[in-house]
Amino acid sequence: MLRKLNDKLPLSAMKTLKINHLFLSTLLFLPLFSYSQVQLGMKAPEIHPEGTYNCGNISLQPESLKGKIVVLDFWATWCSPCVAAFPENNELSAKYKDKGVVFIAITDDPKEKLENFLKKVKIDFCVGRDDDQQDFKNYSVTGRPAMFIINRDGILVYRGNHLTEETLLEVVNTNGIAPEQKSSRPEVILNGGFRGGEDPLYNGMKMMTGNTQSCTPELIDQLIIRPSLETNSTGSFGYRMKQDHVGITYSSGTLEDIFVFLHDLPSTVWIANMVNDSCRYDVIYWRKNDSFEKAVSEIEHALTSGLSITFDSISEKRPVTVLSLNKSNGSVISPEQLEEGTDKAYTSIGNFLTKLEELTNQFYLADDSLKDKLIHNQGMEWKKLHDANPAEIIDFLKTRGIVLKQETRAITTYIIRKN
């Protein structure tokens, strides 16, 4: 479930958030500029960052980059998939450096925020700071991450939101990319990105029709629960509070996924689903309300009554694995200790617990020494955590001074039944 890629926060804290930490599909479509698109095959615009880092003896002057293959990565410290891609891009940069490939990451983050970030996250290639956003504008960046490849002749040959080694190798070998064979089937965008309270399917329709002038969904009081058309997705969510309105969207979630979100549970291990319902659902909520708790209550009531189900709690003693901090250290901090711009260099302890539960189907808890703590994630960044096995995760946590102990505790689990 994509929720696990975000810092895990209780619903009671949601109203304090100023930015929705949504995941990939949402981030990629948030509009930044409305300039005309640069086209593949055209001469690449020059870049003129106001500050550079990690460039060594590499000059970003056009003459110095002539004859090089240049990979441009437009990113930001707040962009989860941007930060998650750095370890892989570090490897590609090192592997193809001797073949004339130059990686340049360009951000519009303020100087202090960027420099704080660079102290916590390893980037082995050149970073440029675009204070006036002119490079973003010249490249018509409409979302992040945005990746470009410029060939040896200074021509744009690739634009996308993710770079694979296969794509880069094709440019290294041929100085270009063969055009894709277009399908005769019309493109259907089931999720056009969203903020809490917006309908991702509606936003997808706007993107397909090119209609950017239509009314915004946030002006309409709505509570929608429907079977999702996005059945191949593993789910994504967003939430926000704007003035006196609450917005919550969950796209393509199973019943267990949605109840985990509504009740702020670590994972679906805490829920026994006794209902023969494997459908995925969309939940879109935007109403005048003074708290997330009331909004969640309305959604749950509509879900249980509409599907004729109950969601009940059960308290009993169960075997659990308890995590605790053996000794305070700089790798485990509280949210108040975060420096500006470094939040994506840390992963909440809740995300580690969730991943362990999903992999083992067992219960994991953090004691008071780790309550609400953040773990410096270098060496177990998001992508590595996503692909890791339990032993790898546990070994990483031990390097951060965390110990695990088997106990029996009284815990509250939940069950979904037919009404």
UniProtKB/TrEMBL annotation:
Under InterPro entries, the record lists: Redoxin, Thioredoxin-like_sf, Thioredoxin_domain, Thioredoxin_ResA/DsbE_sf
* Record-annotated Thioredoxin domain positions: 38-177
Q: Which Pfam families match?
A: Redoxin (PF08534)
Check the record and name the Gene3D superfamilies matching this protein.
Glutaredoxin (3.40.30.10)
One GO molecular function term of this record is: oxidoreductase activity
Q: Cross-referenced PANTHER family, in alphabetical order?
A: PROTEIN DIPZ, THIOL:DISULFIDE INTERCHANGE PROTEIN DSBE
Instruction: Output this protein's name.
Output: TlpA family protein disulfide reductase
Native species: Fluviicola chungangensis
The taxonomic lineage of its organism, from the top, reads:
Bacteria, Pseudomonadati, Bacteroidota, Flavobacteriia, Flavobacteriales
